[in-house]
Give the backbone structure.
Amino acid sequence: MSKLKSKILVVDDNAGIRSALNILLSMRFAEVELIATPNVLMDTMRRFNPDAVLLDMNFETDINTGNEGLFWLSEMKRDFPEVEVVLFTAYADIALAVEGMKRGAFDFVVKPWDNAKLLGILEEACKKRKKAAPQAPNATPTMQWGESEAMKQLRQQVERIAPTDVTVLITGENGTGKDVLANEIHRLSMRSHKPMVSVDMGAVTETLFESEMFGHVKGAFTDAHADHIGKFEQADGTTLFLDEVGNIPLSQQAKLLRVIQNRTITRVGDTKSIPIDIRLVCASNMDLAAMVKEGRFREDLYYRINTMPLHLPPLRERKDEIVSLSELFVKQYAEKYHRQAKGLSPEARRLLKRCRWSGNIRELQGCIEKAVIYSETELIRAEDIQIRASELMEENPVKSAETLEKAEEQVIRAALKKHNGNLTLVAKALGISRPTLYKRLKDYGI
């Protein structure tokens, strides 16, 4: 087999491992460089210019948290975003390796490694580097409507109001997809030719509220070294989405109300009024009507933004969407993480539909993301899915408690198998304490 015209950099403080990898990798790749410490990593990256890096996750003799690997991964992705990084980890650090993939790592390899698998992953990493091109911006998530009566009615409402400029307030629990619904309203509107401007109001501090929302002029305050265009002005001609609007400080609500009513803004430090043409969509997981009664949200602002209320039901009331959403996430993360997963096994589908999903779509998305990373088959299996036993519901409410206990036992057994009996990892995966796990093991005779 001919060598690939690629360069591999290995970072590992174990001399024996470096020696073995030098022999193995030199047989397949044109150039291989090995270093024992990440202290010279960035200089080596600039000099050697590798196509892929095999990065150990632990370097300190007495510290094996994996945080060293995550730190150096972030450093490399910041300065050399085009270089693919493969994490080298012990079995116990797999969860950290998964976190590393979320931060940009190409893949991870568990020690002791399989030669063929290690070579295959590095080859794929190098191929991706060779084909690297400017990344397109993240695609806008697609609204999944489902077949429930509530979602059918919601879809009809959205299709009627989207082409208008009516102000909309979307309510619903955390993770239900309020931002996705806002994007759908914008997509169907007359303003869709321009990108929607989104603001997480929970992330806007009270001291910077006016500057962030309305802008400021040079010299308006310390560090105001140039004019700054606020979110309202940025959204001129398009849709402005204010997410978690209940987080707006009471002291700033009157200023926001004035701008919404007058459709003009004045930048901080200026006296000139600037007209704005926006379509306003707001969202909140809070009970704004109750906040009005408690004096924590202005009544006049509430009625101004609540012209057209839309409510997104929690995922537990949209059971028919769980499988379709899951398959959408499987495809998305299989492409992102270069996995072979193409769908869900029947057992996995049944398990997903039996979960309460207290965190709604966001929780489901995170669950599928981890399952895709862990899975080594084309169909995601039930044992690949990490669901807390306490989140499981009976398939049929009239079934006995014995059925629910049996399901819990199966989940625990699957977790034990997946983590090779490591009770610490099993308890963490199930979201329960070790004492609780010990009790369950005793109860089920495991």
